[in-house]
Amino acid sequence: MERSFVVLASTAYAGSTLLSFLLGAHPEIATTSDVSGVRRRGRMDAFECSCQRKMIDCPFWRAVAHGMRARGYADFDLADFGLGFDYFGPGLRSKVLEGSLPVAPLEGVRDLLVGALPGHRSRMRAIARRNRDFADVVLDVAGARVFIDASKERMRVLHLQRHLGPIMDLRVVHLVRDVRGVVESNLRRGKKPHLTPAHAARNWARTNEIIVRNLRSVPADRQTTVRYEELCADPDATMAALFAFCGVDPGVRVTDVVAREQHLIGNQMRLNSLGEIRLDERWRGTLGPPDLESIGRAAGAAYARLYPDGEPLGTGGGG
Length: 319
What we know:
alpha/beta; five-stranded parallel beta sheet; about 10% strand
């Protein structure tokens, strides 16, 4: 039976870890959540898999590492899978060569110019193949046939569609969360102390606009959009629709199989038990009118496109 590679495209703090966990609970689906990050470097002696074992001691990850090396990837490292397309790391070089540009037509011109650079196109193609092979190994180890990739690279959809779309069943789920919830999560986590509500809102708008733009390269029947709020309001119906989209049995109830052991990497939530699925709207008590006004100015146009029937951005906050 044909295997599928499903990209879960979203901003940070949009609920991708929750959705990865729910999708991965299906017996025909396997996911490790975010595969492109390198935050494990220097932490492997203590970094835990979601199964509560250290990743280096986890039988699942040992089997994946063995499988990748058996396929010829002698450099495969659990601290860095080598699956990211921004292979130069953060900075101007990666931005120019692989990243999103302010004006969409510039990307086409850039791709033509960069494509002429010695080895660049072949290297990008090799990274795509490495992603495909990684997915195959994970599916082999898990005994599943649909792989979910929840990595946060902004241009990941475009790169995967360009290099894998013609040779495998590639599908995309665009997960969207209300910008106010994403802004509140960014501010509460405090990873960027000088981040303002307006800046966080602009990041939300920009990332979602890039995802929507890149989805133009994906066939209409191979993409779908899910709102975090709808997932929390009716998880059974939302997951049934998503299972059908992924091509697996939609009759499997997530609540019946959430005890299935999974092997997710990513944020700390993966180490917690799922519990009740509840809508997180802490922003209503923490974002005041000035915050909501700045969020509206920064992300109003994008919000209106993604939430055409949504609550106006300037309302609903605390004092």
